[in-house]
What we know:
The protein is α/β, with parallel strands linked by helices. The protein has one domain: TIM Barrel (Alpha-Beta Barrel), CATH 3.20.20.80. Helix content is about 35%, strand content about 10%. The chain has helices at about 35-50, 80-90, 120-135, 165-180, 195, 200-205, 230-240, 260-270, 290-310, and strands spanning about 1-10, 55-60, 95-100, 140-145, 185-190, 210, 250, 275-280. The strands form two sheets. The protein has a five-stranded parallel β-sheet. Strands 4-5-6 form a three-stranded parallel β-sheet. The protein starts with a strand and ends in a 5-residue tail after the last helix.
Amino acid sequence: MIWANLLHLSFNMWGDRDDPDNGDRPIVALPHLRFDESLWNDLLARMAGSGFNMVVLDLGDAVQYQSHPEISLKDAWSPDKLRAELAKMRALGLEPIPKLNFSTAHDIWLGEYSRMVSTPTYYRVVRDLIREVCALFDTPRLFHLGMDEETASHQRRFAYAVMRQHELWWHDLFHMVAAVEDSGVRAWIWSDYAWHHPEEFYRQMPKSVLQSNWFYDTAFEGFPEGHKNVIRVQTYRDLEAHGYDQVPTGSNYENDVNMEATVEFCTANVAPERLKGFLVTPWHPTLESSREHHLRAVEQLGRSIAAHAPAGG
């Protein structure tokens, strides 16, 4: 059973320009790491002590890639530094899983290649990065490809916006999945494409791809007809009905009750053989300024682990 936390090494995933209408979310890409090792080390220790067994690490442009060094931040981790931190996680009983989000709503970390989507150059870069990261992680069990929120509305404040749709979205997803599987790894994605294209999704999405539907509100029922939350919650049931493996995802981004409610709802609505675990997503940079928020995320899922995990594991 997976009990995981999503942490960001890179936080360059929200947009290509600062936007005063976006509140306090630091969406603009920066040329340096937003990452404090003091918090990182404390979070790893706290997770290990709370029963977590996985860290999904969003790498973005925060690694000195040998295949494409032009992507990397100036203070990006070297391959040796990354391997040392992976070894540290494993020694604590935390399985490290890589994440590179290739959604066009979250790919500013790709630098110039984020403006070459669906070109031969783009496909080569995507495959190169996936292959290199799989090698750095010593052939991880899973590889998270993101692929959420690729809609026009999510890019309405971007300076440069691009959206794949219809057969092109599927073509590119299949290219990424094939690159992951060619390295002997299982692909993992966010499932929100199913919210807007359910028939297409359940007809074409391979069962081999691990699914993470996500929902961050406080209640799982009682919505008026047509409310956006109806389909978001129903997708957990629909994924189950169509036989997909799931790692349901909750967050403390907006409240402090969602994660535990997610565990309770999905434990009751997803068959044990397809419920592979749970993922908490704080959606804050790994910075000391967000320490309390990160600690609350660990505490929330930690309570569910204590309530649901078998004795001794």
